[in-house]
Amino acid sequence: xxxxxxxxxxxxxxxxxxxxxxxxxxxxxxxxxxxxxxxxxxxxxxxxxxxxxxxxxxxxxxxxxxxxxxxxxxxxxxxxxxxxxxxxxxxxxxxxxxxxxxxxxxxxxxxxxxxxxxxxxxxxxxxxxxxxxxxxxxxxxxxxxxxxxxxxxxxxxxxxxxxxxxxxxxxxxxxxxxxxxxxxxxxxxxxxxxxxxxxxxxxxxxxxxxxxxxxxxxxxxxxxxxxxxxxxxxxxxxxxxxxxxxxx
Length: 248
Prior knowledge:
Layout: E1 4-7, E2 14-17, E3 25-28, H1 42-50, E4 73-84, E5 87-95, E6 106-107, E7 109-112, H2 120-132, E8 139-144, E9 148-149, E10 154-163, E11 176-183, H3 184-187, E12 194-200, E13 203-209, E14 212-213, E15 228-229, H4 233-247
Parallel strand pairs: 4-10
Antiparallel strand pairs: 1-2, 3-12, 4-5, 4-7, 5-6, 5-11, 8-10, 9-10, 12-13, 14-15
């Protein structure tokens, strides 16, 4: 079950919404252009990341409030782009329901920095290996993106890397319930971005979602309903920042 941290009138006491799907949709961003498919190839994405436009800025820098009195802590996530014949795919995970922070949510592989990590890249690669068994040898790190501060006081550095299609995963069942891939083209099309809003006293809180329905196999299509992955919160915000960079 996913949780959304929102504010009561006292911003030091965030409220919890147990299912962000019930928060009303107040808008869709289909007025914004999708990133052209020719700009979403491995070569094109790498070129843009290595030479970003000087005018580009992230749209979101954080959740806008902090849960309790936690001190900020550095963290990093791996924005992993899997190089598939059908196009780049974004590798995401669904966290298990019993974790203290962001239980049940869809997220990038990653976590808090350790004293032994040389930098954010080292944190992201270490966490990806621990959480999903991704061998760093299969990850070609390109760059890092501006940090994003979560409601749980993590100052997160997204690390963008291209992942070889030949990689294999081994999930840590304690932290990760599932790993899956979403087409980058879907996520880089704002027509698939929804804006949700919630009023808590005099304070209005908003968040993005990018619900994605997985393609079912021929064997299960008739027997099972399509699986929806509700991408939202910090993960959706960092993906939106990535969109702003590629679309700039």
